[in-house]
Amino acid sequence: FGKGATDLDVLRQARERMKRELARAWDARDEHLPLDDAYQALVLASIVEKETALPSERARIAGVFSERLRAGMRLQTDPTVIYGLGPGFDGNLRRSDLERDGPYNTYTRAGLPPTPIALPGAESLLAAVRPDERGELYFVATGEADGSHTFSRTLAEHNRAVAQYVKRYRQRQKER
Q1: Backbone angles phi, psi at 150, to 5 degrees
Q2: How many CB atoms lie within 10 A of CB 142?
Q3: What are phi and psi of 170, to 5 degrees?
Q4: Average pLDDT over residues 114-141
């Protein structure tokens, strides 16, 4: 940004860059994408951005969400719920939060939330429009320091992965 750039200058430049990146990604989209338009791709990319910091997982996570959208399943993604809670979120997502309905609660509502929940990078935009679909419908954090996830095709597999995560989490708590 140039010397003397105002906050509005920065925002305008960022908006124009996002428009260009989104158009570029949308033009490269998979022909069987379960999204109606580029705005939906932006919303999905924002969720992917919040779900993982690992570049190698972005397209796979987008694939899970694409599979769920195509199947009419709820996305059930914590970052959308957290976004909907707003500044009152204390860092602890509770079952009651997941059960409280609101426009960003993808546990109680089908489809995408009404707006993006974060500013996605170009990599997340591309992942959203070119998802790596492997028939997987679930993922959960491994609990490893690398931020990786375990992906599952069935609910039974997912429940085992969740149990493994809980086991790792409890073990770490004991070690503290």
Answers
A1: -105, 130
A2: 15
A3: -65, -35
A4: 97
